[in-house]
Specification:
Largest sheet: none
Number of strands: 0
Shape: rod-shaped
Keywords: Coiled coil, Membrane, Transmembrane, Transmembrane helix
Organism: Teredinibacter turnerae (strain ATCC 39867 / T7901)
Strand content: under 5%
Radius of gyration: 49 Å
Structural class: mainly alpha
Protein name: DUF2802 domain-containing protein
Number of helices: 3
InterPro entries: DUF2802 (IPR021244)
Pfam families: DUF2802 (PF10975)
Length: 137
């Protein structure tokens, strides 16, 4: 083979080889691009699902917060009612004890019937005695 022909043939062969290599590289690059695109789409779907779950959780949290506030309000109302009830019951106990002391009932019986302590009844008796006007004979 002639050297004059050999160089152009080799140049063409190298060019064909370079084209073949670049085609293989391009196919690999395209495959990687497709794989990355698929991964991107998968991550986008996961992100959408997480956003939906987050929105549901936030909505539920807001609803739960409103329920808690309503329960706290109801608890305050019940607590106030209980306080008023206890105060009224306490007033009734002292009133009942005062009536029984006026009738001359002993301290232990008054305590048993009113729910007050014997010490409270004895103190009421002392106050009752001092508040009565002295009767001189």
């Amino acid at each position: 083979m002639d050297l004059d022909l050999f160089i152009p043939v080799m140049a063409i062969a190298l060019a064909v080889f370079a084209c073949a290599i670049s085609l293989v590289g391009a196919r690999q690059a395209r495959a990687e691009v497709l794989a990355l695109r698929e991964q991107y789409l998968k991550l986008a779907r996961q992100l959408q699902a997480m956003e939906k779950k987050t929105a549901t959780m936030i909505s539920g949290s807001l609803g739960m917060g409103q329920r808690i506030m309503a329960l706290e309000k109801k608890l305050r109302e019940v607590s106030d009612q209980q306080h008023h009830y206890n105060a009224a019951e306490s007033d009734f106990s002292y009133s009942q004890a005062h009536t029984m002391i006026d009738q001359g009932v002993d301290a232990s019986t008054v305590a048993a019937n009113t729910g007050l302590t014997v010490s409270e009844i004895e103190l009421m008796e002392l106050l009752h005695k001092t508040s009565r006007p002295a009767v001189y004979e």
